[in-house]
C-alpha cells in the first residue's frame, strides 16, 4: 500500500480510515520532531476541517484556544479512535481547571469544546489517534490563540512541562476532576 499524503487532503473521492492509515501516520509522527502529525481529509479552504491527529508520548501541545468569526464558530471536537489522550482545561493564568482521560476503550470516547476554552492535549499512549473536527477554512495565522507564559515547542522547558502534565494522569482519576 502506498503511504498516505500527510498534512494535505487526499485526492481520492473515497478516503479509508483504517488501521493501515493509523499505522502510516503514527510511524511518520514517531519520526517527526514534534512527535505528532495530522492527516487532513479537508482542503485548507473547506468550511469544515476534518483530520486525524496522531500523537506520540512526549509531544507538547502549547495551551491555546480557538476563536473564529462569527462568534461561536471556534468549537473543536475530538474523538479518540486508538489509544488514550489526556485533555487539560486551563484558566487564563495557566492553572489546570479540569482534566479528562479520553480513550478508544472508553468510557469517555470524545469531547466537544466550546469556542474560547483554553486547553492542551497529552498523549497517554503511543500511537494515539484522534479524529478532529473544527470550523474552517484553515487560517494558520489565526487558528490558535496561544496562552502566554508557556514555553515554545521544541524547548527543554516544553519537555519538562509535558512530563508534568502527563504525570497528572498517572493515578487514572475519574473523568472531570483536576
Written overview of the protein:
The chain is of the alpha+beta class and 178 residues long. It has two helices and ten strands. The protein has helices at 19-31, 156-167, and strands spanning 36-40, 48-55, 64-65, 76-82, 84-90, 96-103, 110-113, 118-123, 128-135, 145-146. The strands form three sheets. It has a five-stranded antiparallel sheet with strand order 1-2-9-4-7. Strands 6-5-8 form a three-stranded antiparallel sheet, covered by helices on one side. The protein is globular and about 45 Å long. It starts with 18 loop residues before the first helix and ends in an 11-residue tail after the last helix. The model is unreliable at 1-6 (pLDDT under 50).
Amino acid at each position: 500500500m502506498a503511504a498516505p499524503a500527510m498534512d494535505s487532503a487526499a485526492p481520492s473521492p473515497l478516503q479509508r480510515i483504517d488501521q493501515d492509515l493509523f499505522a502510516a501516520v503514527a510511524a511518520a509522527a514517531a519520526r517527526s520532531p514534534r512527535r505528532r502529525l495530522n492527516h487532513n481529509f479537508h482542503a485548507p479552504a473547506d468550511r469544515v476541517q476534518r483530520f486525524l491527529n496522531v500523537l506520540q508520548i512526549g509531544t507538547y501541545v502549547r495551551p491555546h484556544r480557538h476563536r473564529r468569526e462569527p462568534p461561536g464558530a471556534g468549537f473543536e471536537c475530538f474523538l479518540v479512535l486508538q489509544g488514550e489522550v489526556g485533555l487539560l482545561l486551563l484558566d487564563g493564568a495557566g492553572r489546570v481547571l479540569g482534566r479528562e482521560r479520553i480513550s478508544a476503550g472508553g468510557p469517555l470516547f470524545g469531547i466537544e469544546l466550546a469556542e474560547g476554552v483554553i486547553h492542551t492535549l497529552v498523549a497517554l499512549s503511543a500511537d494515539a489517534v484522534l479524529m478532529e473536527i473544527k470550523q474552517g477554512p484553515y487560517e494558520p495565522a489565526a487558528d490558535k490563540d496561544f496562552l502566554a507564559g508557556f514555553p515554545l515547542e521544541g524547548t527543554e522547558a516544553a519537555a519538562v512541562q509535558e512530563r508534568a502534565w502527563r504525570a497528572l494522569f498517572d493515578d487514572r482519576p475519574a473523568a472531570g476532576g483536576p
